[in-house]
Amino acid sequence: MSKWLEEHLPKVVLAPSFIAVLVFVYGFIIWTAWVSLTRSRLLPKYEIEGFIQYERLFAAPRWDVAMNNLFIFGTLFIVISMVLGLMLAILLDQNIRTEGAIRTIYLYPMALSMIVTGTAWKWILNPGLGLEATVQGWGLENFTFNWLVDPDKAIYTVVLAAIWQSSGFVMALFLAGLRSVDTEIIRAAQVDGIPTWRVYSAIIIPSMAPIFLSAFIVLAHLAIKSFDLVIALTGGGPGFATDLPATYMYAMAFSRGDIGQAASSAMVMMGVVFTIVVPYLYSELRAKND
Amino acid sequence: MKKSVFSAVSAVAMISASVAVAEPQAEVLHYWTSGGEAKSAAVLQKEFADNGGTWTDMPVAGGGGDAAMTALRARVLSGNAPTAVQLKGPAIQEWYEEGVLADISSVAEAEGWADVLPSSIAAHMKCEGTWCAAPVNVHRVDWIWANADVLEANGIEMPTSWDEFNAAAEKLQAAGVIPLAHGGQAWQDATVFEGVALGILGPDGFRKAFVDLDADTLTSDKMKAVFDQMRTMRGFVDENFPGRDWNLATAMVMNGEAAFQIMGDWAKGEFLAAGKVPGEDFLCASTPGDGFLYNVDSFAMFDVGGDDKKAGQELLAKLVVGKNFQKVFNLNKGSIPARTDVELDEFDSCAHLSAEDMKASSEGGSLLPSYAHGMALRGAQAGAITDVVTSHFNSDMSSDDAVQQLLTAVQNSM
Question: Where is this protein chiefly located (chain B) (predicted)?
Fold first, then answer.
């Protein structure tokens, strides 16, 4: 008995969560895929009608806006967060005295929920209440900063708020990476009289490649599933200028009673996630097998 | 002594009566959760209890009813529908098509609903000829609200045509007042849009465009004129309008920062709550043009098993359309009773105007459902139109492009 337990206990313990994941993740992915092929409106229906929902989806201008925004938001958010995070990490790595305090300050935005971040930035960026009004109040009458209410620029305010929230976290990731680089190599380089910037660009940063990949994956999935920040900051507006795929899906599923359409947009979102995650998983698994 | 015997006897009689007839039970799913609304819902709850019923309250806040509809979907899918649900407009028909609504014709006929409800509103309450929902109130959507002092100071009358409105707005702008208080949320853009559309297309055109979704009307020159007017009005709102809530826009009119607001009569509740007097501090009028756009809250009755629940449903339906509830509830909520035979003595002048216009437009055939508030079209179609309206209002899209997009969007949403 005890031998059997010893052999099977791990499996028994893991089984419930395994089954839960199987049903609630993969089961519902299949369910969503199925519904996306039907004409479901208010309630799900199960007669397959082909790709009608996908045709509707790609004909909708609002979906185009949402995908464009995802591209703009995703690219800027990931690139700027990484660059900023890396710079902060390198600066903090210079053995400064108050590192602990500064690190905490930079990490703190991560402790806020996106809703709080969005609401705070909504007030800061509102031309009538926040930054613009304040600076104009100081006497600089010509100062304008109205991105939040400009349909062409509003998506950049979402980028701004998201970077503010996440770059501290990226900094922490990179800082851990910097500290894990073998100090012997760095010392050797210093003995050879190699300038610090060369030490970073030729030795430390290349050896941190796995950290870059992790940071990228974390930021990319944050970008794709971004929802609450947009809802709190702009509500998808002005008009639907800051819609993202997730807010589009929400509108279709919960406001408009168009479940089929929502399911098809969810499937496309999942496709986007897969194109990013699958190469990562592939490289990870291959690295282990080597 | 005699008295107590009498009361004992009547108590016994009451107990036996309640044994004979199942005690009415009702589980009511609604989203009246904000201050004034919750108070209004409590009125119904009390009246239900006074008539011997047991009320199970199921309020679901959030998302303008979206959250409640999600809860409803889950309940219906699990085969356990609530007794009555706050539903409105075509959503009633959508749920009927799913085969889950009950028939309350017996109550409706006994109470003579057909005689007291305006026919176009009664039509929403019927599912293929049988009654399946009970109307609670009538909100008018095509209102224009104004600050009386601001208008007087600038020598402006309430506009009776859109040209007059534009002229007044320009004058106000020159005087440094924001002509139109507006919140840039899609549904508010749609609310203004349908007021403009009703004025320019006329009641028949409005019906063709937003009830029948007639392609020619959607792309007509008059529809272009509607978008032109929207473009003009874009110039009359202040720079900070995106994302503003409607009640903040109302506050701008109240404190004289802005002159007009186009919004349904829930805005009146804000004025009244701030102690403003209609006709003195603020003015109300229908938006320029003929017709009346209504937004009617109602309770749809779901198919439930058990005599006690059926009895609850019938009692609820009877009370909801009853004169007393229609009066008390609507006094609280700022709307007007759906039935036309309620005494309006306690209502204010704006409600009187609304009731008179409803009667006249019902007779003249211009009593029309609001598209922006989900009375005229199903969610997907109404949403498709709103997408175009809000994207036109928030960009420099031309009116020609807008009508083309309108047609494509409507066709794509089918």
Answer: periplasm
